[in-house]
Amino acid sequence: MSRPILETRALRKAFGRVLVANGLDLAFEEGAITSVIGPNGAGKSTLINMLSGLIAPDSGDIFFLGRQITRLPIYRRVKMGLCRSFQVVNVFPELTAFENIEIPVLAAQGRAARLLSPLSGETPAGEEASAILSRVGLSHAARSTATTLSHGDQRLLEIGIALGARPRLLFLDEPTAGMNPVERTKILDGIKRISAEGKTTFVIVEHDMDVVFSLSDRIIVLHHGDIIADGTKDDIQSSSKVREVYLGDEVEE
């Protein structure tokens, strides 16, 4: 069996008396789309925040690509290839879609000083940014300012911005929140297409069970900081514990 791309050992976090991560042992397989689900307060966002470096665990260890990163700052994790998106869209609203993506590409290439220069598609960074726009399905909007894009396209742009950092592992926090069915389908198709390229592994926090079941190779269910189920769609749908604490009638439907 190959080494996990990301692994946690006895990861623990509490806020006062509220335990949100109760000694979590997890291993994420490279190339698989993994969804983390659970009721509100289950510890999903806290887990992603610890893995991405936004908050520190109280105890336990995190390993990325076999390297201990538990206390590593966010920017160093990003340089290693561990990136994330947030529930609220984070784009540069007054820059074009192309410019939004070329900025992290330049940073990833170690050419941050170029950020103060005019941006152009006729450079290695520009070529890479154009390729990323194509990967997320936004080539048609390259010259459009981000603020003029639909909510769904802004979400795709945010994924493109993350791809500009050349992530090996990308966390997506509720990527389809607030979308209509057409936008949601576009996002799901984009994630599946990028995952199939084999360059980026996705871990997704999501409440929409249609999205989770249609997208995931693996589903992890959290409840009060504990893992109560971990497996395929069929495993989760057949779990009486998951049915009891979370899914309920959604499994029947």
Outline the structure in words:
- Helices cover 37% and strands 23% of the residues.
- With 253 residues, it is an alpha/beta fold.
- The protein has one domain (6-252): Rossmann fold (3-Layer(aba) Sandwich), CATH 3.40.50.
- The strands form two sheets. A six-stranded mixed beta sheet has the order 6-7-8-3-9-10, with helices on both faces.
- Helix 3 (97-108) packs across helix 4, helix 3 (97-108) packs parallel to helix 5 and helix 4 crosses helix 5.
- It starts with 5 loop residues before the first strand and ends with a helix.
- Residues 249-253 have low confidence and may be disordered.
Structural class: alpha/beta
Q: What is the straight-line distance between the termini?
A: 36 Å
Seen as an oligomer or otherwise, the chain set is single chain
What is the H/E order?
EEEHEEHEHHHEHEHEEHHH
The CATH superfamily appears as P-loop containing nucleotide triphosphate hydrolases
Strand proportion: 15-25%
CATH architecture: 3-Layer(aba) Sandwich
CATH C-level name: Alpha Beta
Poorly predicted sequence stretches spanning 5 or more consecutive residues: 249-253
- Give the domain tally: 1
State the main characteristics.
globular; alpha/beta; four-stranded antiparallel beta sheet; Rossmann fold; 10 helices; 253 residues; six-stranded mixed beta sheet
